[in-house]
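Hey, resending since the last one bounced:
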Amino acid sequence: MLAKRIQEEAKAIFKQVQADRRHLHQHPELSFEEVQTAQYIAKQLTASGISFEQGVAGYGIVALIKGKDPERKTIALRADMDALPIQEENVVSYASHVPGKMHACGHDVHTASLLGAARILQTLRSEFSGTIKLLFQPGEEKLPGGASIMIKEGALTKPSPRSIFGQHVHPPLAAGKVGFRPGKYMASADEIYVSVHGKGGHGAIPNETIDPILLAAHLITALQQIISRNANPLIPSVLTFGKINSTGGATNIIPEEVKIQGTFRTMNEAWRKEAHQRMKKMAEELVSAMGGHCDFEVVVGYPTLYNDEVLTNNARKWAEAYLGAENVVDLPMRLSAEDFAYYSQEIPACFYRLGTGNIERGITSSVHTPTFDIDESALEIGAGLMAWLAVCSLAEE
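The C-alpha cells again:
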C-alpha cells in the first residue's frame, strides 16, 4: 500500500527534515533576499538527484519529479522561503543566528517539509504516473508577493499543473492534526497609506491652525463606517489602522502633517473595489470640509484565497486515509492573507493547515511573535502528507 510506504519513508527521513528545518531557522533571510536559503535548497535537491531551475522571481526554485508516463498529468506543491524582521526570544539550540530576523511564520517548516516530500517522491517515483512540480517560493511576506512574480515568470507552465497544494503551520492545532476548508478561506489584503495635511502652529492658539491630528482622528473614526454601515453584513471585512504619527509636533506644537497606515481585508472582490473608492472619497471630502487636504493611497495586495471545493474535499478524504479521520478537522474562514491566493486564482488549489502546537510542552505562541516555535514531530506529517496528497491527486482522473 502506497500510503504505508510514504509513512515509512517520512519516518525514515525525519532526522534529515528536522536538520533542514533547524538549519533554515538558524539562517533566516527576509523577503526577496533568500540567497543562502536558495543555495541550501539547491544543494539538497542536487543530492537527491532532482532536476531544478533557479532564479525564478529572484531566488525561487522550480523542480520537477517525473514518475511513470510523466506527460500524463502534472500537479504542483509549494513552499515559501522568507523570514520576518523579528528578534527571536526562544532559548533553543537552533535559534536564529541573525539579529533582528526570525522564521516566525513557519516558512522554515514549509520549506523543510517540501524538501522531505521531494525526497519521498523521488524515491517512490516508479510507483506513480505523472509529474510533480515543486515551487520553492520567495517573498511571501512582502508585496507584490513572490507567488505573483513566480506566475508571471512561468512557474505554472512547461509543464502546466492541473492543481496545486500548499500548507501552513497552525499553532492552535496540535501536532499530529491537519485542517481543511473548501471554498473561500483567507481574505484579500490591501495596504492603506494616508497623509493628512493641515496648517501647523502654536498649541495655545489652535484657531490660527488647521490641526491635522484632529482631522486624522475624525477620519479614522469616520472610515470605520465603511465597514459598519456600507459593507454587506454577510461579507467578512476588517479595516485596521496600525500606525499614526505626525511630522513634527510636540505638547505645544500643532504639526503640519499626520501620516496613517493601515490594512483593509475582505472576502469579496467586488466589495473590495467598491470599498477602495468609498474610503478614498470619504477621506478626501471629510478632510477638505475641515480645511485640510488628504492624500489617500491604496496599495492593492493579495487577492482572496479560494480553495477549490472538489480538490479540497478530496484532499480532506485523502488526509483522513493517511492520518485517520480523528486527526483531520474543519477550519473556519480567517481574515489573514496569503500570497498562495494568486495560485488559487489561476488553477484549482488547496491550502491547508499543519498542526504544530503542543500545550503540554508550552509550544503555543502564535505566528509573527518572537517566541513562535513548533513541535517538530509535525515535520513527519508535513513531509509525508504533502507526498501523499501529490500521488493521490495524480491518480485522480
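The chain is about 35% helix and 25% strand.

Sorry for the duplicate.
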